[in-house]
Fold this sequence. Notes:
This protein has about 90 residues and is mainly α. About 65% of the residues lie in helices and about 5% in strands. The protein is built from two helices and two strands, in the order ααββ. It has helices at about 5, 10-65; strands at about 65-70, 75. A two-stranded antiparallel ribbon has the order 1-2. The longest helix has about 55 residues, at about 10-65. The protein is rod-shaped. About 0% of the residues are buried. The mean pLDDT is about 80.
Amino acid sequence: MNRAARDPRVALQRRFDAIAVEHLRNEVERLSTSLDETTNRLYWAESAAESWRDDFEHLVDVTGVAVGMTVDGHFGALRDQHNVHGGVPAGMP
Length: 93
């Protein structure tokens, strides 16, 4: 038996290493699950946003009236209806 195998510090370091590896495995599993859930929410949000955009474009096409949303979430007809189909009023980036 060599000296390193009898050294209690080596045994203690191996135990710490095993604990650290187990902790990292658990953290990887947690982060993987979180990433999957976040990815699913992102796909849902993108789908919802595309649906809202399509509904807006259809509303403008059918009525000829541009509709906007206030910062409070209320809908209303826009007064300046120039450049409506671009989704951005004229002069805005």
